[in-house]
From TrEMBL:
The lineage of its organism: Eukaryota, Fungi, Dikarya, Basidiomycota, Agaricomycotina. This is GS catalytic domain-containing protein. The chain crosses the membrane at residues 41-59. Residues 120-480 form the GS catalytic domain. It comes from Phanerochaete carnosa (strain HHB-10118-sp). SUPFAM superfamilies: Glutamine synthetase/guanido kinase.
Amino acid sequence: MATKFAPNTVEELKELLKDDAKVKVAVDGVLRGKYMSKDKFLSAVTGGGFGFCSVIFGWDMHDLVYPNELLISNRANGYKDLLAQIDLATYRRIPWENNAPFFLVSFLDPDTNEPICADPRGVLKKAVDRAASMGYQCYAGCEYEYFQFQETPQSVADKKFTNLQPLTSGMHGYSLLRTQLNNTYFNDLFDETAKFEVPLEGHHTETGPGVYETALAYTSALRMADNAQLFKFAAKSIGMKHGIMPSFMAKPWGNLPGCSGHIHVSLRDANGKPIFAVSESDAKTGRQGAANQETKFISQEAEWFLAGVLDGLPDVMPTLVPTINGYKRLVGGEAFWAPNAVTYGYDSRAASIRIISPPSAPPSATRLEIRVPGADMSPYFALSAIFSLGLRGIEKKLSLPGPPISQLKPEDKATGKVQMLPVSLEAATERMMRKDSVAREESVFGDDFVDHFGGTRLHEVKLWNEAVTNWEVERYLELA
């Protein structure tokens, strides 16, 4: 789905940019990019792309180079250029940067003109194209929870990332009073992102000091991933203007709830009809042949999709929870509503996958909410994992792995009746990279992606294992 005024031809593009001297282009993941002169930009559009250093796939978020054995970018190939292809459908303007025109790019191998295995937009396009071949359109929505601090990048560095000042004090979820504090910033987040064509559905305080929650407007999956990634960019940029630093770190405080990145998904047919919805008559009585009472108000395809996500969930965890810190959010229990097991349930926020359907929602709004990801997830990889697994479930007509969470007991986790999710990035990556992992199936991610992305996660684990933390010093310095 393109932006409202996206150009369809080079002539339309030139008309849009007639008053501009430069254009900003960005790559996804940790959002990076640059300004290009308008002439250079137009040349790249008409010429099929431009060279962009492959090191962006060869280093981590702090520009530390990955090991040589990673596939795309390494010392052996001299960090050669990739072909960056500008997607005109992503056109928008950045209101807080003098209305600068802005486009996203995707990456191709310059030798084959094929998408590279780890390009976030390319990975999601693969899943969306697979859905289209089955007669489906992928739709999604993302919700972010995020802490905010009265800090700047310089002040947090000066404080060595300790004793940071929250934007507000106390636990004030859905507070109308707390939004009166920093009111201009709170409203700028809503209004400026709308101008940036990242529309929001909901925006409010969440429980925790300085915590907001923002729900992005439901749309097609690739558009949603773009919007979700660009919302982080927008929030951080707008925050800088107000001396505020939003953080999408999953668990910045050990004794407080973490920050989720919940994802809502559904399928539609080529005409826009909701695939997950039951018929009007079944919306009153429930679908015959449903696995249980909690799935009787979703379609058979939705039940297979749900089973597919549950079946592969443990094998794709690094794409949903990609950081060391993210696994500290998944503590389970009702206190933090952060599920850590393969569970599902009708309208249950304690489950890993929440079924949203009649009678609490109209049939047309029927969807699944995947509650495992944190705010630190990549929306491209997370949505790719969810849709690929769900489509696999439909193809294989998979059965649900067990009863809904409402029929389970706390001891079922200890006895093995309920499958637990990996408890660390290291365990999750090892599971994803094993030979018979569902993630390695070509219809999910395939070997090239798993080997590359898994290698980046093992790099993260290595850095963590080598780090000496304040906790260790405080615990062992005197008494060990």
